[in-house]
Here is the input.
Amino acid sequence: PVPVNAADPLYIMYTSGTTGKPKGIVRDNGGHAVALLYALRQVYGMRAGEVWWGCSDVGWVVGHSFIVYAPLLGGCTTVMFEGKPVKTPDAGAYWRVVQEHGVQGLFAAPTAFRAIRKEDPDGEAFKRYDVSSLRHLFVAGEKLDTPTYQWLSELTGRPVYDHWWQTETGWPVTAPCTGLGQTEVRGGSTNRPVPGYQVEVLDANSRPLGPDEEGAIVLRLPLPPGCAQTLWNDHPRYLDAYLNTHPGYYHTGDGGYLDADGFVYIMGRTDDVINVSGHRLSTGVMEEHIATHPAVAESAVVGMHDELCGEVPVGLVVLKDGADIDEPRLEQELVALIRDQVGAVARFRRALVVPRLPKTRSGKTLRAALRKMANGRDFPLPSTIDDAAILDEIAVVLSRDGLVPAPGKPQ
Here is the structure.
């Protein structure tokens, strides 16, 4: 071991690059170790000698934070898994690993469980394994839709906790602190701030908003240990991206609101809000409602330019395996659903079935690429895309539908 100063750099990690221009996050040594050990104990409730499984890629922040560093700092056995939640060899892969290794804490992206649900909606693969060692499941990385939460909770009989953090923070910002006995769950919420973070909601003029008022999610400075304090060789960009938008606050880039009890609701990236005839609407809210349709496995809603309204939402929908519904009928039902739940003001009139959605290897949907495709704009091929062939598949659907004259192409 080589002694280093607490503030010395530990690693450089590039963000997922959903904007097409990744940023090199610099992590320190001392604060990082303190934050991760605290989170392992108090957020995830793990103790030395127990078995923890972070279902992620070691190259991503979850892999660094909660496959390698945190469990080893805390004396836990850590599971490293190479493969996907389905087709390796089937939708029971996760449950097999839980049984074989006696996993007590499990953390994965909602995308993983949506994939399992798509292929094993009735839980037949789950029933083949003994998962009695499992105490609870944590999900993060994408918005946890209500149908997936309900399915996973009912299937496993275990508490399912949504929580929220970022590559830049390195550890959870909002989460139930199970190690402190805080296990309350509220549908749609990523729970309350973890000690060390003060989460607030501001409007475009940096004015604080009250309970249930939607705006920009920010963190009041100073940030707790473990959070990035610069970008590799580009500190001015760090200041511009995170600290200059709302002076005195760290700008997360996410939008949402807090309820009267301090529970945080993340509605999506602030650039995923579209302007329809002067009405600012969250695409994340529409995706949440689309997910309630029994034939839908997952979806992405993007804004497409419209001469009359400025923007209109378009839904790209992936069906569950075996779903028996024709596309015109599905579109009619989804249009009626959004009209009923969001309102006619949303002007949601198009829902296209696609084979799959473009994802990063950590499971995040590349919405920026989808927006540019739907608007006929070329874009840089995202460096973190799991399978670039997906973009060609979606381009075929857009072209066939006549939605755009020529879908944007990756460069």
About this structure: The chain has two domains: 9-267, 273-401. The domain at 273-401 is CATH 3.30.300.30 (GMP Synthetase; Chain A, domain 3). Residues 253 and 271 are 8 Å apart (CA to CA). The chain has ten helices and 16 strands.
